[in-house]
Amino acid sequence: MLVLQDFQITSIFPQLTVYENILIPSMLYYSKNEAINRTWEILEDVDLKDKANVIAANLSHGDQRHLDIGIALTTKPELLLLDEPTSGMPPEESIRTVKLIQRLKSERGYTIILIEHKMDIVLSVSDRITVLYLGEKIAEGTPSEIQASDEVQKAYLGGLDKEYKMVNNRQKKLAGNGQEILKLEKVNSFYGESHVLRDVSMKVREGEIVALLGRNGAGKTTTLRTILGLTPARSGSIQFGKERIEGLPPETVANKGISLVPAGRRIFANLNLMENLELPFFMKGIDSKQKRSQIEQIFNYFPALVERKTHQGNRLSGGEQQMLAIGRALVGNVKFMMLDEPSQGLAPMIVKHLAEIVQEINKERVTILLVEQNALMALELADRLYVMDKGETVYEGRPEDLWANRKLRQDLLGV
What we know:
Elements: E1 3-6, H1 18-26, H2 32-45, H3 61-72, E2 79-83, H4 91-106, E3 111-115, H5 119-125, E4 129-133, E5 136-141, H6 143-147, H7 150-156, E6 180-191, E7 194-205, E8 209-214, H8 220-228, E9 233-240, E10 243-244, H9 250-255, E11 258-261, H10 273-284, H11 288-301, H12 318-329, E12 336-340, H13 348-363, E13 367-371, H14 375-381, E14 384-389, E15 392-397, H15 399-404, H16 406-413
Parallel strand pairs: 1-2, 2-3, 8-13, 8-14, 11-12, 12-13
Antiparallel strand pairs: 4-5, 6-7, 6-9, 9-10, 14-15
């Protein structure tokens, strides 16, 4: 069986024409005349026949993805693997790609395995769906069976079920209190030619905990990366306090008082706990007195780390690594902390403890922007929330208002 994979990152020859991109791999499998004929067949299949002489680099992102699929078709594979084929596409190009996938299946007879974060697309093109969560299969069935699965809905809503009654004991701040510490206006970000954030606007006030929710692939992590400057905004404005920070290097942004606890923790495996914790002090030029005070505060938040000071990063548990990552992000004059999926892969009791610590950190005048798939944790912590979908902010409001509207909650966060 011949299997061809179309990867999430487009792999084309940008300086060659569309025709040459298909012809060259075709000649590895066919005679010259057969390769020419096969090239024109594929260009017709992927809707690029009229762009055969265009330099590939000049194609739209959607057309480049179609060309990438065309390259994968040159060998007439029996099984076609498509990895996020609509990633970064605007809605109109996504619709074209969905039609292409449906045509390849129904008219050309290809068997296709599709990996895709956009659930509306998965539900519209699939005969059967397998759902993985934290490396384990939690459901398999038809699109209608998957939509009806309580296990799938719980996974997407972070453990909440239909009968959950939202209880939030945190005293909510009155709307309008506190000055704006962060403001995004019509921010657009790209990965290469992949347009990820689309006119994203949001604001966070001093002292708030603001949750940023949405399905996988909605653009939440990219929003955090864009604020910090790791994925620079191509247009729009980002204001921190009274300063514009878009376009500044990440280290300059960090030194203004913004920190990030990244998804996956990013602990240095070959350094011990104390070395991981002390590294930011050297980078930020903090004096010894302030260093002692801050390390003492971090161990007050996370007393479980005290006895693990000499353990290497790769010998710490997932919960301990997350505590270390949060502690490390508190080093310096931090005013604004961003947390990206802090509960990922952790046991419920550890998640509860982390939520309590996040509240304590917030009480110490650190404003927090929280990206979290665990809706239970996010809704109970947040003063306000935004929901993202396909790179856009589609909802802003109070957690209790979203939870009270079951249909809206399902439309925005469910499957």
